[in-house]
Model the fold of this input.
Amino acid sequence: MARVTSNFRCTECGWTSIKWVGRCGECQQWGTVIDQAEPVARVTPLRPVNAARSITEIGAESVAHWPSGIAEFDRVLGGGVVPGAAILLSGEPGVGKSTLLLEVASRAAALGQRVLYVSAEESVSQVRLRAERTGALHPSLYLAAETDLATILGQIDQVSPELVIVDSVQTVASGLTEGLAGGPAQVREVASTLIRVSKDRNLPILLVGHVTKDGTIAGPRLLEHLVDVVLQFEGDRQTSLRFVRAHKNRFGPTDEVGCFEMTGDGIAEVPDPSGLFLSRARVPTSGTCVTIAVEGRRALPVEIQALIVESKAPQPRRVVNGVDSSRVAMVLAVLERRLKMALSGFDVYVSTVGGIRVVEPAADLAIALAIASAFRDKAFAVTQAAVGEISLAGEIRPVAQAGQRATEARRLGFSTMIDAESAHIREAMRLAFAASVDERGDIPEF
Done:
């Protein structure tokens, strides 16, 4: 008699093993390896009710968005909330996810929508206190503190809302699935059930998702595939600025960015964040240069500051904040090799204003100019901005969306734009220092 051999398979990625393991060896997920020794039944073909048609015979139906009341949030979604859409919002603990969604719920209720806010982490009294502090009280906003999936479905049947917010999906459990809340099986069952209800009733649902230590969404990757929109709420606890980015959007673009600011009264949208990343005193100061960064489709002026201090240590310090440390190290090497700047004996500090992080290569030229300005102790004119990528040969390369950057610079009053028209970093330095503020008025040679 042939011996039956068990075959263990991961439900997430399909990885197989001859024995059971707690963690998948391929996708590194816990609790997803199950025994599939039983023979798989074959599926019998059925006659389809609706026959397949040519794509040219199918009419294009426009997706109807209805505004949530927050323009920056609607901007990221592609125009507003789509009926029947499942939206997943993730972010680090304490960044303000619940505050943002409570504001979305109150704005939607003020526009005539019946909203159900389900809190699986806080009591209704705690949510009510926060809503009173942020001014989010409205009669059409209903609160419920539930952690059982069946009870949440009962609340949806009783309230009959037009928008449902669940905070969060990792703290809700179903009695039909084994395991603790937050486990892969529970998250899969809860998300699948809520999304099925969303599609059947044409009801938009906003789900809050926790993140792991490396910043990815906790739970199985199937969660991101099930939902229609995946939003990332980013921000630093030391600053009040917050960004909402779309990593996946079936109803709109994925390159839009929404700007918000955390205040004592809640969260406020920032429709024009141009002045957030510039120093308040716009006076000529050595070691500063403005670049035009692009966040999604939005061009933002960012001031980069540099400080050069003579060091006696054998290995001078290189401290950066808001910029890529590897890009700064490369710019320092280019300046020392191509322009003969003796920077190896100085501590170099480079930072951005306002807490924004700029990692695109388009900020290379502004970083180089800020370092050179600090090294020469000469200030550039406040009407000057720089955009360009620097190669190892010292050449300045053109950047993406150059026209949009130039238009935004002119709108903000920057009359001089140093960019790829200066073929080499040496020419860019001469052009920048030609309008520098110096009592002697001389222009350094490079």
